[in-house]
């Protein structure tokens, strides 16, 4: 990785859907906070990247010991996720070049694989627009009528789950978020702001187990995913040792 890479991790959410005592980034997963897992995965993939971490200004739970990056800064989050990301981009002004890559990754996705992170970055490095990790929709999709009944079945062909990281050049991302804000568009990810400029972000197929911890049952699911990934890693390592012998 020769050119500068910037990581923005929005972690200023309150996680109300979890119904837990603490925001979900501070819940314990396999012995450490969700945030520590997420930052560790990012660091394994991009050890020399520079990190901008968005935290609630009242956050008293954060511990800097969880940050493995040498070059990092904390910024205050905003009212919505897009505002938190915009604060991070503003904090990078004068440091990040317009053509440098920014990967935005939700703190609530601790199971993202290092292979997917590296592959995403490699695919986006030469892309003029940028893009995101995503997974094709497997289930039949229903739209509700607002009263708990099916109003319609949506065609799932061509539908993808948008995940993170999402990566775009610094200049383009600043322009996209500023334009979305000016137009009053509510954007829940970076890609939709870029799409609103008339551009088509690249969909990079990622593992389906890049779960976003959102609901109470997700914490147990994430623990099982991490454990399966560790087992998979040791199985793969054993297999490659055998191949080498
Ligand atoms: O609530 P949701 O899961 O959609 O949040 C996605 C990510 O955005 C989480 O990592 C959360 O901490 C972050 N977020 C933020 N600032 C907000 C709201 C959410 O950084 N105001």
Automatic annotation (TrEMBL):
<dbReference type="InterPro" id="IPR050088">
    <property type="entry name" value="IspD/TarI_cytidylyltransf_bact"/>
</dbReference>
<comment type="pathway">
    <text>Isoprenoid biosynthesis; isopentenyl diphosphate biosynthesis via DXP pathway; isopentenyl diphosphate from 1-deoxy-D-xylulose 5-phosphate: step 2/6.</text>
</comment>
<keyword id="KW-0548">Nucleotidyltransferase</keyword>
<dbReference type="InterPro" id="IPR018294">
    <property type="entry name" value="ISPD_synthase_CS"/>
</dbReference>
<dbReference type="InterPro" id="IPR029044">
    <property type="entry name" value="Nucleotide-diphossugar_trans"/>
</dbReference>
<comment type="similarity">
    <text>Belongs to the IspD/TarI cytidylyltransferase family. IspD subfamily.</text>
</comment>
<feature type="site" description="Transition state stabilizer">
    <location>
        <position position="24"/>
    </location>
</feature>
<dbReference type="GO" id="GO:0050518">
    <property type="term" value="F:2-C-methyl-D-erythritol 4-phosphate cytidylyltransferase activity"/>
</dbReference>
<protein>
    <recommendedName>
        <fullName>2-C-methyl-D-erythritol 4-phosphate cytidylyltransferase</fullName>
        <ecNumber>2.7.7.60</ecNumber>
    </recommendedName>
</protein>
<feature type="site" description="Positions MEP for the nucleophilic attack">
    <location>
        <position position="212"/>
    </location>
</feature>
<dbReference type="InterPro" id="IPR001228">
    <property type="entry name" value="IspD"/>
</dbReference>
<dbReference type="GO" id="GO:0019288">
    <property type="term" value="P:isopentenyl diphosphate biosynthetic process, methylerythritol 4-phosphate pathway"/>
</dbReference>
<dbReference type="Pfam" id="PF01128">
    <property type="entry name" value="IspD"/>
</dbReference>
<dbReference type="InterPro" id="IPR034683">
    <property type="entry name" value="IspD/TarI"/>
</dbReference>
<feature type="site" description="Positions MEP for the nucleophilic attack">
    <location>
        <position position="156"/>
    </location>
</feature>
<feature type="site" description="Transition state stabilizer">
    <location>
        <position position="17"/>
    </location>
</feature>
<comment type="function">
    <text>Catalyzes the formation of 4-diphosphocytidyl-2-C-methyl-D-erythritol from CTP and 2-C-methyl-D-erythritol 4-phosphate (MEP).</text>
</comment>
<keyword id="KW-0414">Isoprene biosynthesis</keyword>
<keyword id="KW-0808">Transferase</keyword>
């Amino acid at each position: 990785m020769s050119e500068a890479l910037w990581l923005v991790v929005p972690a200023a959410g309150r996680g109300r859907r979890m119904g837990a005592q603490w925001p979900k980034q501070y819940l314990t997963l396999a012995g450490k906070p969700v945030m520590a897992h997420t930052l560790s995965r990012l660091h394994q993939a991009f050890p020399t990247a520079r990190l901008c971490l968005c935290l609630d200004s009242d956050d008293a739970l954060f511990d800097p010991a969880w940050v493995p990056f040498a070059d990092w800064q904390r910024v205050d989050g905003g009212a919505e996720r897009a505002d938190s990301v915009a604060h991070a981009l503003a904090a990078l002004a004068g440091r990040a070049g317009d053509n440098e890559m920014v990967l935005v990754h939700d703190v609530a996705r601790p199971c993202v694989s290092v292979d997917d992170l590296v592959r995403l970055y490699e695919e986006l490095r030469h892309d003029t627009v940028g893009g995101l990790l995503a997974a094709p929709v497997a289930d039949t999709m229903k739209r509700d009528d607002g009263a708990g009944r099916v109003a319609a079945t949506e065609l799932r062909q061509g539908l993808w789950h948008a995940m993170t990281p999402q990566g775009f050049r610094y200049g383009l991302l600043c322009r996209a978020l500023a334009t979305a804000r000016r137009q009053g568009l509510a954007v829940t990810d970076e890609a939709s702001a870029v799409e609103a400029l008339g551009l088509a972000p690249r969909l990079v197929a990622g593992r389906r187990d890049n779960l976003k911890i959102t609901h109470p049952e997700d914490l147990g699911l994430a623990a099982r995913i991490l454990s399966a990934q560790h087992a998979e890693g040791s199985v793969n390592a054993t297999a490659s040792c055998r191949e080498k012998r």
